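Hi R.,

Here's the chain you asked about this morning:
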Amino acid sequence: MGLRELKRERTRRLISDKAFELFTDHGFGRTTVEQIAAAAEVGPSTLYRYFPTKETLVLEFVENSLFGALDWFREQPADLELPDALEQVIGRVLDQMDSNPDRVRAVYELAGQTPSLSAHLTDAIWRWRKDLSVELVRRSSGTSTELTAKLAAGTTMNIIEIVVETWVDHPNGPTVKQLAEKTLELFRDNTIPLPRARQ
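And the predicted structure, written out as tokens:
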């Protein structure tokens, strides 16, 4: 990364960090873009270049975690077994979440209090599921239908969501990795009751 890119990344991170401080202290709705810009010592127009909306300030970390793992998957060789790849995708998302637990908990708390944030988070999750299913179809070489890919993508996202939600709700409980391993074991052992087609 060049000096210019490094400076841009530092500015981006500073804006995001100052915004979270203000959101935590004053609430999302009562914090203005002007207050965030002043705290980060940048102009409002500079802030908007980095973050088009207040919602993107909050959700950037979660979106980067999700779509960064998806980008990694797209770069993997075609012969990578899909079950192994999806398990690694889950692990990569959760590792990112685990790297900044305070930020993740703040995102979920703010989303729970703010309908616009909740809607943006839901939209990001649906976009990720759709993009993952498209990649699964592309990699299947005709052996996987769109329906199968959507089910696999939905299950992958559900695992991530439930692990993170459980972890956020129980800060003194198991770690993200422990919860993920337990969840995957339940799938491997066929412990989870799932609907079946009639015989």
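The chain has two domains: 1-52, 54-188.

Let me know if you need anything else.
M.
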